[in-house]
C-alpha cells in the first residue's frame, strides 16, 4: 500500500482548507464513494478545530492507494495534538475563509455545506459525533488524571481547550 500527501514539505503551511485540502483531495481521490470520503475529510477538519490542533498542516492530510490508477481514499487520521495548551495564542495552520483564526459555527457549517456539499442535517450529525467522542474522551482523560497526578495540569488544559473549541466551533451541542 502506498500513500501520498497533498504537498511538498516546504509548502506544508501554505494554503487553505477550501482549496489545498478539499479541492485537491477531490482531484486526486479515486474513491467509489467520494461523498463518504469528503464527509470523513470534513469531520477531520472539524475535529482539528474542536481539539485546537494548530498544526493540522497539509502533510497531515493524505491519500492511500494500492495502485496509481486504482482506488484512492483518505488516509487514516494521524498527528492530532491540542497545540493551544503549549502555545495559547496558536491558530490554524491553514486558512479557512482567508484567515487562520479558529472558525465560528457559521463559518464551519458554511464550509461543510459548500465544500463537502453536506446538508445542514449531515453537518449537525458530524458535529454531534465529534461532541460525543470528545465527551467520552474527556471522561477517559479525567480518569487518567486521577491515576497520573503528573498529568493533571496538562490534562486540565486539554479539557478546557476542547470545551472552548467545541463551543466556538458549533455551540455547546
Q: What is the compact description of this entry?
A:
With 173 residues, the chain is mostly helical.
List low-confidence stretches: none
Reported for the largest beta sheet, the result is: 3 strands, antiparallel
The count of DSSP E runs of length 2 or more, i.e. the number of strands, is: 3
Radius of gyration: 16 Å
- Helix tally equals 5
- Span of the ends, CA to CA: 39 Å
Quaternary form: single chain
Structural class of the helix and strand makeup?
A: mainly alpha
Overall average residue pLDDT: 90
Structure report:
The chain is mainly alpha-helical. The protein is built from five helices and three strands, in the order E-H-H-E-E-H-H-H. It has a three-stranded antiparallel beta sheet. Strand 2 and strand 3 (72-74) form a beta hairpin. Helix 2 (34-51) packs across helix 5 (152-170) and helix 3 packs across helix 5 (152-170). The longest helix has 28 residues, at 120-147. The radius of gyration is 16 Å and the shape is globular. The N and C termini lie far apart (39 Å).
